[in-house]
């Protein structure tokens, strides 16, 4: 019998390689979990009924606030991806000034859905592209919901600023701070650039003592210091001619460090006489221009003024305010419409500013200096914020800053939108409907992200002690019936037309929150490894 033929083994030309994606998935999930934990930390602070956080710094300073940007800024976040959410909050603060908690909570909700979609095996690039499409479509939806606004409509501006202040620690003072913020911003709007507001033109001066009710807007300048009176000089000056000087009225020093040994009294008398003559010469030049108020910049090289120079300035009936910060010089010169003087040789009358009154005013236990009635005053204003303790004072300043930013948003983009979770629930509904028209994975991703936007009304209801599931379900129902301005009224604990309740916010706050949150989530999603460089 013939031997059976043995078939030769076929060589497998295709080489199979195994790629371990476990590490990439772990890194991505680790980043998402870290960022979500940061979002969860500030979530309870959202809305007018949100909780406050007590922050204790390493130096022992205590801060009480519910401002998202402040909380995250003070948190010592170590995980690199979690730091993105801190930067996200700062970006929102820079762009809009308000909605810093909203943007972080939104990012946290979007990341939660990303984690779910990744576990279903959807590729991160597909999820990222869906987020980009959502961002663009969401801005269009929000713009279609917005109500146009004119700057002459002061009541609407005040309502918007009040909505921003209602969620703050100092919310009971919103009836005072909101109109003040509106008046401050409108007073610095340049007719040549009607869409631009520089908040550096509004100076906030904090002064301990009194209550927040004592906060006022001053058309002029306020200095949180006393008049220099060691030489017995004046503390009140009418028809003031003001000079802002950046040189020292004190004896000069040598350019290099060296010791001068004086061997006898004759030489000592000669030195003192020369010093007196040098100072007197400067003061005579100052007095010759008619100047009667001096603002002296703080000096680091030597004393800006000495007791001797203050004595001679008092004799010349010149009011002196010393130790003016270098950073404040630009604001002061813009307000007084004058030029800073860097050298005594350049001291001329045309460089002076003019005001009706410069006086020292008692405020509580201390004193401040007010300059009012400024001639040809620049487009600036000063807000004097008062508070009974440092915690209230700091929070009042932060709240006022947010209100100023809200009004600034309305100047640059003149549209208002309802608050109370109305825009988010309408977005969720419209994006959900839009997802049905998309094909494949994109439609599936958009549907999930549309659901995640409900986190804002859900959190508002939760923080107000309401039943979040019942409230959000009812809210969804109202919007399905075409009531696009229906929102959560946390004071009444029910769904109402939030636009009629005067709960409004700038369109820019909502659009930038969506755009920045989706951008941040896409960035975190694209990271598949963390490389540490020593």
Automatic annotation (TrEMBL):
Keywords: ATP-binding, Chaperone, Cytoplasm, Nucleotide-binding. One of its GO terms (molecular function) is unfolded protein binding. CDD domains: TCP1_delta. It is found in: Cytoplasm. GO terms for cellular component: cytoplasm. Belongs to the TCP-1 chaperonin family. Molecular chaperone; assists the folding of proteins upon ATP hydrolysis. Known to play a role, in vitro, in the folding of actin and tubulin. NCBIfam families: chap_CCT_delta, thermosome_alpha, thermosome_beta. This is T-complex protein 1 subunit delta. It comes from Beta vulgaris subsp. vulgaris. The lineage of its organism: Eukaryota, Viridiplantae, Streptophyta, Embryophyta, Tracheophyta.
